Amino acid sequence: MSWVCFTVILPFLILGSAVLSGHLTLGFLTRAGDSESGYKVESKLKKAGSNPEVITPNHTITIAVLTDISSTLYSTTGYENLAAARLAIEDINANKSFLPGYHFDMLFKDDGCDMEVGLKALTNAYDNDENKKINAVIGISCSVVCELAGYLCASDQWNIPVVSHSCSSDDLSKTDKYPTFARLSLSVFKYTNAIIAICKKFEWTKVGLMVNNIDWYVKTAGKMKELMTDQEKNGVYGIQVFLEKFYYDDEDEDGSIDENSDTYKLLVEQLNRMKQKVRVIIIVGYARDIIFVLKTAKKTRDEQRTFRFPHTGVHPSRSQKG
To answer: What is the pLDDT of residues 79-107, one digit of tens each?
Structure first.
């Protein structure tokens, strides 16, 4: 039985923003009316106060770059994000025709892809030893940190923009709750319609969901299952979804697989159950989780000849730690 495995790797982009005349300007690309092909750029403004600060020539704009370089979740891509941010800021400063008279500075903090570590990183960036005034926050990859940063930075005391390239929490779409937050990625639920369309195209009526047993991912997978099984929304095309929650051993930081561990044995059992029911599996989890499932499936296939993957694409940077 052949399996098809889908994973989603979000793009990394950098958005340049400037704070001018006491106003925060964020650009959004949205549909123009009901046109199929037209788009328009909307601006979202939030006044900084009744007496806006006038930025004088040679003013320094400090960008706080928060990204994960310490956990096993996004540590590899965290270094890539940091390097990209440094190159982007160097390029902006080298271009004398772009915002002449302004200099961009960068302040880096490791958010650890963790709420507690992220809170410490964010507060240390805001109240830093160098007495630099933070004008914007970029680089966050994890939704738990994005939600925290989006909430704090929208406060009257902070009132600074947060721009993420990959945070996908659906809650972040609530502009009333996160008015100074913007992202260059989609809510994770936006991908569900594409998955449904693929299932219709290939006439797949049974799909497996392998989800990391972390609260946010379990909620995400649950909502995906709800949308995929809703025949009314899917045009009477019913998809039967089988959901399995798996675990990841945080002690396996080097990416190795301990075949004697309970997590490995449980995953093998879950994959064997899935094999009896579906041809298609969607993995919902971190990059390390995707690698863990694929490696386990491959090893089981090699030993028992029960699995075959026509294609599995893993980005080289994600085959290392994280």
So the answer is: 888 999 999 999 999 988 888 889 999 99
Which residues are CB-neighbours of 235 under 8 A, at least 6 positions away?
none
Between the alpha carbon of residue 241 and those of residues 82, 205, 282, the distances in Å are 38, 8, 10
Euclidean distance between CA atoms 14 and 63, whole angstroms: 12
The three-point CA angle 58-60-65 to 5° equals 155
Pairing mode of beta strands 19-20, 23-31: antiparallel
**pTM (global) more than 0.70:** no
108 HSE (CA, 13 A, CB side)? 14
Q: E strands within 119-199?
A: 134-138, 162-164, 181-183
CB 128 within 8 A of CB 152: no
Helix-helix angle 287-304:262-275, to 10 degrees: 70
Q: Is residue 235 within a helix (H) or strand (E), and if so which, with residue range?
A: none
Alpha-carbon span 64 to 112, nearest angstrom: 15
Rounded Cα gap, residues 153 and 158, in angstroms: 5
In the chain the first and final C-alpha atoms are separated, in Å, by: 30
